[in-house]
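User: Some background: our group keeps a shared notebook of sequences we're curious about, and every so often someone picks one and asks for a predicted structure to add to the entry. Today it's my turn. The entry only has the sequence so far, pasted here. Could you supply the structure so I can complete it?
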Amino acid sequence: MKARVNVLNGRSLKKFLFSMSVLLFFTSNYLAGQIKFDPANLDKSEKTIKSLINAKIDDLKKQNVKKIIISGCKGDFVLSRETAPDAFVNPDMTHYEIEKNTRSEFSKMLDQIYCVKITTRLLDSVISLFNHAGIEVVPVETWQQHKVYQEMLKLMIEADVDENKRYSVLFKTTTATRTLSVPAIDYRLEPEKLIKMMQYEKLRTQDKGKMLEDYGAQAFCNIAFSIDGLMGKPNLTGLTLFFETGMKKYDMGTKDKDGNKVYMYSITSNPILNIKGAMEYNTKTLSESKRIDAKKYDQAILEMQSYILSLFQDKLISALNDQ
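Assistant: Of course. Here's the predicted structure to add to the notebook entry:
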């Protein structure tokens, strides 16, 4: 009996290699997500956690950044994961309104007020970090009065309409993941409707630089993070400080209705801080009654975020002082 041998032709080989590369990519990300953060043994955690941090500070030095505007701060909180057999059949299953009477105990704890509080606390920590490093942060109540931002604000999600909340669902095979997105207090979420998104993007890329010029700043900073923790403990699955720097000004050769020259601005986007994987908290936050201990859960989030920011702050101060 002869053994059957399958020979890969050129096209099949390419498909095989591509499939393997995809598998390796997702496997590496999965393994990265298994990195544990042990608050009781920081020395053991430090080497592993440092490998997660991707800090590109050279651009801040190159652009001589001394003053910034934190123009956005958003947190994403995973509320639940459920099987959804018809996920790819029903095209209307793109957003969910999660009713209070169907929420799990976990979802009830992660309500809008709680999530805004967590997001705002991170914003305050980042402001403190930059001030400590010698980088001034323009107060939110100052730059939000700018006419360019006021135009952008008209396109953003209105607080009095939907309470600054956005529920979304991501389908992966037969799993539906519900996520709550919230901004820090005094901030708004970016628009979702296509037309508004296009108008918003035009303002962001062409006119937003005017704000830097008027306030003597050199960069915008956007903060984004994500929390995923359905097994009684939170995991930090994302934390990014996204910078827009290198503002350039172009004379358009025209004048506005008041006779002033019209300029266009351009800026370059770079993630100055980004964690490449996920941090899994190594201590359960369930109480003896098997209920989630909100105080422990909150403390776990604080410890992970604070640890990442402290490592980044050390890198930032060291780089800025190394002239």
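Suggested note for the entry: The beta strands are 36-37, 53-55, 67-83, 136-137, 166-172, 175-183, 219-228, 235-255, 261-275, 279-281. The first strand starts at residue 36 and ends at 37.
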